[in-house]
Amino acid sequence: MPGAPDPALLNATIELHLNRLRSELQSVSCDGGSSNWFIRTHVAEWRSSAFAAERARLFAHAALFGEFLPSSTLNQSQIQHTKLPTTSYTGRFSPFDYWEAEYSCASESRVPANVVGDGAKWLCGAALHPAPCQVVSLGSNFDDAFERGMHKLANCKSYIVDPTLRVLQSSPNELLHFQRQLKSYGASLNTSVGVGRAGEKLRFRGLKAPLVSLETLLRDRFLGAPTAHVSVLKADIEGAEYDSLDDLWNLCASGWLTVDQVNIEVHLAQRPMREMHAVFAGARKCGLVLHHKEVNTWGRYPCVEFSWVSLVHAQRAAAAAVGAQRRPAMRESAELLIGPQSPSSTPVCPQSLLDRLATPAALRDSFVFINGALNMDLKTDKFGEPRKLAQRGGARSTGHSYEGMYSHYIGDFVRRRCAALHIDPAPRVRFLEIGLGCGMEDLGLKPGGGVEIWRALFPPPFVLELYVFELAEKCARQWEREQPSVAGMATKVLIGDASSSSDLDRAYAEAGGEPFDFVVDDGSHVSGHQVASLTHMARSAYLRSKGLYIVEDIQGSCRSWPVMGRDADGQKLGGNINSNRTRTGLWVDGTSGCLLTADRRPTLLGQILAWQKKLASGSIRSNLSLPVSHIDVSREAAVFEMV
């Protein structure tokens, strides 16, 4: 034990440090403003907890080892499992015992939830990261379970750095296969450098990889950007965290970088205790609070995984939890049209969301088309000019141009509720989509593409209750099993035939029996099915007043093609033309005249024309043949606003 200083001087030094800490904690808040309710509860509680914890650890270290912890020269390994010589403390002591969680997250989860043991990480509001979600992972060991989990939860793109994979591969092609696996969901891998003390080499099993600073790595990753944002930074770099994390904290302090969550595997090293203290003290420069601690028993040397979350992101999780508990009734009144709220008194809508919905072009460019090709990570074709896309197995996929409609109607909905966050800080959105996308494999699409879009368009502070109605039960249940729980974004699959009134009634009851804000029909595209679903749901008041019922692919009134979906047993619904030149299976039944099907029944467009005539004459609302106040027809979709 080092020579003990004067106890009075040591105590005075600690008290001076605590006075400075009290001021520092008051300055740590949500960039861009935090709501009064969040400050009064979560932030105030964290400040009190963080101050008490720092006071306890400083006086404990002083009593045990006669040192001021922030400047301690005592080696970490020297005090690991030290048997304490005082009756005030019993048992064996570890440096990690100084730090415990100081903040209780409203929606904490392990990602991915289905992994037992090493590899998964504890996060706060894992699914609530606004787009674009960026994950930076330092260290991999050929394990991408966390990165895949974040991609499923929040459509995150991961950047993984690990040069040791070059010598860890057990077969010549293991690294190549791993790179292909990462590419399949938009992740990328850097095996050329490691992160640590710049200019040195990482020496491992004959490997001599150059080390770069974390600042160099991040600035290269966001080359030329005036500012950068990382949703989650995860690091397991075997002790190099002590040489690297100062860069992270200083980049935050400079204003260039913001980060929502940090997960660090902190190792016991031949380092002075002041460096361990600096790791935790530095996190406040990024507005981070410690919310979880997990002892890792898998490593060769003692280590503990610590999880921090920014107060900005913690507020998203808290707002989602409050909304889920309160479930406030939205009021369609002039209150929803009040101008922008004060940032200091309410949550705020992400500016990236408002920008995305500002124009049709912004919505289109933010989602699907990159240089004219379908971004298969999203697995949807809702946005972009119609064009021939990839040809797979003889089938051709055509993109749609719904961005004009959705940027207008969803954009208006979002802007009005963002302007009313002082009334309702966690707006609830009930959303039903007919058609999960089962049976679209021939077009290179997978189930659930629409789900990702709706999640991206209603991020926190919205509380999204999303339901998907699908006929193909086997496909839908498999998709549902693969979807992790999403905090603040409940997603439930409903099984049935959307053209059946009884199935619609049962699905509505299973969805809670409350009217929807939005219903989107992207089902079979058969006119008879589209009309049946719309009329039954509208007449049954399954949408709230001013709710929107949207029918996609109305061009099916003018064309014919085999239905792409599957039945309850997983068999394809769509048919073909047999040797007798007659059709088999189910077909979209439009004709070139657009108003009548081949068997002379009204198409959806024909029915819309009849409804519009009644609406123009004022009779449609008086006799409630269809309780709508407005019909809007675009090139490929129709929007019906309920009375």
Secondary structure: elements and pairs:
Elements: H1 7-27, H2 36-65, H3 76-79, E1 82-83, E2 92-93, E3 108-111, E4 121-124, E5 134-138, H4 145-154, E6 157-161, H5 165-168, H6 174-183, E7 188-190, E8 194-195, E9 201-204, E10 207-212, H7 214-221, E11 228-235, H8 241-254, E12 257-267, H9 273-282, E13 288-296, E14 303-310, H10 311-326, H11 351-356, H12 360-367, E15 369-370, E16 373-374, E17 388-392, E18 395-398, H13 403-418, E19 428-434, H14 449-457, E20 463-470, H15 473-482, E21 489-495, H16 501-510, E22 516-521, H17 527-539, E23 543-552, E24 560-562, E25 587-589, H18 604-617, H19 619-622, E26 628-633, E27 637-642
Parallel strand pairs: 5-6, 5-11, 6-7, 8-10, 11-12, 19-20, 19-22, 20-21, 22-23
Antiparallel strand pairs: 1-2, 3-4, 9-10, 12-14, 13-14, 15-16, 17-18, 23-27, 24-25, 26-27
Helix pairs in contact: 1-2, 8-9, 12-13
